[in-house]
Amino acid sequence: YIGKDMKKEEDLNKLFMKWKEEQANEEDTTTIPFNKVDKTSFTYDGFVFEEKDNTVLYILKESNLLNGTKANDEFWFKEIYKEQNNKNIITRRIEKMQKYICLKIPDMSNRNISYMNINKRGGFTGNDEDAMYNYYERYKEKYIWKEIEIINPMIIVFCAKDKKIYDDLVKNLNVKYAIKMDHPSNYYISDKKYMEKFKERFNKVIAKI
């Protein structure tokens, strides 16, 4: 997708500008979680370190807005991941998955990592499944798929239970390798159990690499 001179960050920023503007002008409220999120809310994502092909792309559904109704326009995961903040269950488990992948694939490093949320508005605890799917259907071809094409990952780790969106991504994109996992914030299972599931699923995929 990109020529020898990398300009992925530039392409992502251009895409996000158009995406944010279209979101802000949207009249269809069925894409807004619980109809409570500010429609101008936007969360950024992409490369955690330097831009490059063949990263591991971790895809989550949406950022948790906690007590607000609007995101702060920041790439929250990037900052927390770089701090190696083990108190955050999402970054902690993604770091564990990334380290395991690095052990198994030559030339893969902890810096070969990217991250994205499907719903750029964000949402609340207790995901609004209907709004999420409506959002995906509305923005998939023009923006969601385009972001993945720009990032051009080697492996996608889809961290959500929504099989319908996962299957649609794998079917319509040139995904090299894909793994489906529960959301890393799932407190009902321990880190150990979560990683056991990941290793089992990853090892089925690695046989193809």
How do the helices and strands line up, and which of them pair or pack?
Elements: H1 8-24, E1 46-47, E2 56-64, H2 76-82, H3 89-104, E3 113-123, H4 129-151, E4 155-159, H5 163-172, E5 177-181, H6 191-206
Parallel strand pairs: 2-3, 2-4, 4-5
Antiparallel strand pairs: 1-3
How would you portray this structure in words?
By secondary structure, this protein is α/β, with parallel strands linked by helices. It is 43% helix and 15% strand. It has six helices and five strands. The protein has helices spanning 8-24, 76-82, 89-104, 129-151, 163-172, 191-206, and strands at 46-47, 56-64, 113-123, 155-159, 177-181. A five-stranded mixed sheet has the order 1-3-2-4-5, sandwiched between helices. β4 (155-159), α5 (163-172) and β5 (177-181) form a beta-alpha-beta unit. α1 runs antiparallel to α4 (129-151) and α3 packs parallel to α6 (191-206). The longest helix is centred in the last third of the chain and has 23 residues, at 129-151. The protein starts with 7 loop residues before the first helix and ends with a helix. The model has no long low-confidence stretch (mean pLDDT 88).
